[in-house]
Amino acid sequence: MKIFKYIICIIIVSLFTLNLFSQEKTQAEFLSELDNKDTATYGDALAMFSLQSGGAISVNSISEPKGYSLQNYEEGAPLTTGMASLMTVKYLNLGGSFMYLLFGTERYAYKACVSNNLFNKDGSENEKMTGLELIELFSRISDIKEVK
Question: From 6, 47, 110, 136, which residue has the greatest number of CB atoms within 10 Å?
């Protein structure tokens, strides 16, 4: 009877352990999934900023944002270049233009990012971003971060 109890305890502990490991997502898995997305989400951008800042990603939560999160946006909302611009301006402390300093909107954040060669000037702050575009943005953010 004791052996039966030990076996059941080992099985239960094993199941809990497997569940914990299955919730963790590696950076490579996350980037691979993001690369294949037709439309990135606000949550994807938060995760990328978290990775850029040395944080970690898990399925259930993203490490606490450090100054680049936005108010009134849900993690599942489609990511626009304007949203990504606002987050980027906050993250890189880009001064932007006088209009951005006055209003702090997506439009003027986008213009600040265009002036820093993070986005193409032919675009708009309302365009939805793909996963690949988000990854490319972070390669340019890394370049700027290294210079600073």
Answer: 110
